[in-house]
């Protein structure tokens, strides 16, 4: 088995594990569930969280993922030096940083690589 196929299988198993383990209505607390997931797997996880909420579950998710925080209807609470505050997705510091990085990676990398 190649490293690539092992990687793909691992991520498929993560998605499958989430669907199998988290399927009944309840309260789910997730701590950075996006860690080690590919972009596609994060989208799959987002869809699963949406399905849970539609079926009367509540999900509390600590994340650094702008993708997961973009779930429509999510109540987003940002934790920072200011304490805790309710914010809109496009007001999140992490969204701002990702936008700026993707627009001009060198403006960030020059501080790290030089």
Number of helices: 5
Residue stretches low in confidence (pLDDT < 50, at least 5 long) are: 4-8
Structural class: alpha+beta
- Average pLDDT confidence is 86
Major beta sheet summary: 2 strands, parallel
Count of separate structural domains: 2
> Quaternary status of these chains?
single chain
Task: Assign a percent range to the helix content.
Answer: 40-55%
Strand content: 15-25%
Radius of gyration: 16 Å
Strand order of the largest sheet: 1-2
Number-wise, the strands total: 4
> H/E order of the elements?
HEHEHEEHH
Q: Give the end-to-end Cα distance, rounded to a whole number of Å.
A: 39 Å
Shape: globular
Task: Write up this protein.
The chain has helices spanning 3-21, 39-54, 66-69, 93-103, 105-113, and strands spanning 27-31, 58-62, 76-80, 83-87. It has 114 residues and is of the alpha+beta class. It has two domains: 1-65, no CATH class; 75-114, no CATH class. The chain is globular and about 50 Å long.
């Amino acid at each position: 088995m190649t490293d690539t196929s092992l990687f793909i299988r691992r991520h498929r198993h993560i998605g499958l594990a989430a669907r199998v383990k988290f399927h009944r209505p309840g309260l789910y607390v997730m701590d950075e569930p996006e860690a080690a997931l590919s972009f596609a797997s994060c989208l799959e996880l987002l869809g699963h969280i949406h399905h849970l909420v539609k079926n009367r579950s509540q999900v509390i998710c600590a994340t650094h993922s702008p993708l997961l925080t973009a779930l429509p209807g999510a109540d987003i609470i940002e934790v920072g030096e200011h304490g805790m505050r309710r914010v809109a997705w496009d007001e999140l510091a992490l969204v701002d940083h990702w936008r700026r990085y993707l627009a001009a990676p060198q403006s960030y990398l020059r501080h790290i690589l030089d």
